[in-house]
Write a structure and sequence with these properties.
Largest interface: A-B, 49 and 54 residues
Number of helices of chain A: 9
Largest sheet of chain A: 2 strands, antiparallel
Radius of gyration of chain A: 19 Å
Structural class of chain A: mainly alpha
Helix content of chain A: 55-70%
Strand content of chain A: under 5%
Oligomer: heterodimer
Number of strands of chain A: 2
Order of helices and strands of chain A: HEEHHHHHHHH
Largest sheet of chain B: 5 strands, mixed
Distance between the termini of chain B: 44 Å
Shape of chain A: globular
Number of strands of chain B: 11
Order of helices and strands of chain B: HHHHEEHEEHEEHEEEEEH
Shape of chain B: globular
Number of helices of chain B: 8
Distance between the termini of chain A: 8 Å
Structural class of chain B: alpha+beta
Helix content of chain B: 25-40%
Chain lengths: ~220, ~250
């Protein structure tokens, strides 16, 4: 029995590539109008709740300012992100991945339990007991899959004027197009923060075994078998 | 064994795609055609979900933006335009031509005498900002019906009085958008004549698409069978110049 199912691995790498391209092309798009607003509309400096920096070329795709090219990259990679997540969710419900590996118990959310798990991570103890993931892994993967990625996709849809006509409830969910744009931006940084932390945790917990596992599928450890 | 190599191959190919990615890749044939395909997927999805007949939201007056931003050309740089502006656009003519049975030339009074539609809508710029304004004017469909479209007509091209970096601004839409009830030839913004920065005396409203589709300083409406041979053939000034998507519903 493999540690990671094929569908999980394909989705993992497809999403990793998509997120990086979407983030970097998104920063190029942000450079076109580096201000954020709340509500339906906004364009003036005094209406903004946040003035952003202009992101340098090494952080953006393409590496020079081009709203048109950045939009092409962004609008293409939105498809594998959204379709990939949908297919992965259906497959993970069907193959039991969510139920088996991601479901947490209420008592694990008690602050004393969470604090103990954080302390374990700081002492580089990443043991998972009888399950595949420890609590912090389950909680963070769950938040990414069920909250941050869907919010990212729907706030993106809410910025499309044609989709707003087709699905007005999407833009209402965020309280207006400019609110959706602000949330899209905040969520993008949250996802990038997760990605960096995730890479750090892999590096600290046996990077070759972890990376190998996510490529070939790896083996289940004896305790989970 | 073969199967396993295949799976690894998929993962390796995916990493390679990113490793070699970026601007240079976008210029190659396959990638730019992939990006062009994305535009038709997006349009296809929007067609499927709303058959593109859905109406853009109309707001109540308390949502009006205090001022309506002008962008792109905000004051056309030609003697002819300045003369029209000095005369309050009294002599402005809008032509309807191309693949029509009765070509038209309409004065501002002719346009104001047609049945009018008023709508408070959100304007979304490709750059990311939005402004809400109240627009009034006849529906484009009324003008096209007066002129009588020929069967071969597939697109409507908008001719404009402004130039940007030496090129004439123009735009185009398909017939679904041309006959959409919210597609109007606006002469009024927030109850006043359209200001110069917003496209005086006439600008298109193509609700449900981004701002660069809403041609300003409108002089002509032309029905065509194909966009080839107009500008560089991509259907609009920014499409030709910068590679913006012709379908700007996203």
């Amino acid at each position: 029995m493999k540690r990671h199912a094929l569908i999980t691995r394909v989705w993992h790498w497809l999403t990793a590539i998509s997120l990086i391209v979407l983030f970097m092309s998104g920063l190029n798009i942000s450079n076109a109008h580096p201000r954020l607003y709340w509500g339906h509309a906004g364009f003036a400096s005094e209406e903004a709740w946040l003035h952003l920096i202009r992101y340098p070329g090494w952080m953006t795709i393409p590496g020079h300012y081009s709203l048109a090219q950045a939009r092409s990259w962004h609008l293409f990679f939105a498809w594998p992100l959204a379709l990939g997540l949908t297919i992965f969710m259906i497959a993970s419900l069907a193959n039991g991945h969510f139920r088996r590996d991601l479901v947490t118990r209420w008592r694990e959310w008690r602050w004393s339990a969470v604090k103990a798990d954080i302390a374990k991570h700081f002492s580089l103890d990443f043991s998972t007991g009888a399950s595949k993931y420890n609590f912090l892994q389950k909680a963070s993967y769950g938040l990414i899959i069920f909250v941050f990625l869907p919010v990212m996709i729907f706030s993106g849809i809410a910025m499309s004027p044609a989709m707003d006509a087709n699905w007005p409830w999407v833009v209402d969910m965020f309280g207006g197009r400019q609110s959706a744009r602000s949330i899209h931006f905040l969520c993008a940084w949250a996802l990038m923060g997760f990605l960096l932390l995730h890479v750090i945790m892999v590096l600290l917990s046996g990077p070759l075994r972890q990376l190998g596992g996510m490529i070939t599928g790896g083996r289940r450890s004896e305790e989970e078998a | 064994m073969k199967n396993r190599l295949g799976r690894r191959g998929v993962l390796a190919a995916m990493s390679a795609l990113f490793a070699t990615g970026c601007a240079r890749l976008a210029a190659t044939g396959p990638v730019s055609s992939l990006f062009e395909a994305t535009e038709s997927w997006n349009k296809g999805l929007h067609d499927l979900l709303g058959r593109r007949s859905a109406l853009a939201r109309e707001f109540s007056p308390e949502y009006l933006s205090p001022d309506f931003r002008g962008n792109g050309t905000v004051d056309p740089d030609s003697d002819q335009y300045r003369a029209h502006a000095a005369a309050g656009f009294a002599g402005w003519q809008l032509t309807v031509s191309g693949l029509v049975r009765n070509p038209l030339s309409l004065s501002m009074d002719d346009i104001r005498a047609l049945p009018q539609r008023t709508q408070i809508t959100r304007h979304d710029c490709v750059e990311g900002w939005s402004a809400i304004g109240q627009w009034t004017g006849p529906q484009l469909s009324a003008l096209l019906e007066m002129a009588g479209l020929r069967e071969e007509a597939r697109f409507i091209v908008f001719r404009c009085a402004d130039t940007l970096a030496g090129g004439d601004y123009y735009e185009s839409i398909d017939l679904v958008d041309a006959f959409h009830p919210q597609t109007i030839v606006a002469h009024s913004l927030n109850g006043e004549n359209v200001p110069i920065k917003n496209g005086a005396p006439l600008r298109m409203r193509i609700e449900r698409q981004l701002g660069y589709k809403h041609a300003k300083y409108l002089t002509g409406i032309e029905a065509v069978a194909s966009l080839e041979g107009i500008g560089s053939g991509k259907g609009g000034y920014w499409e030709d110049r910068a590679g913006y998507q012709w379908y700007a519903g996203i």
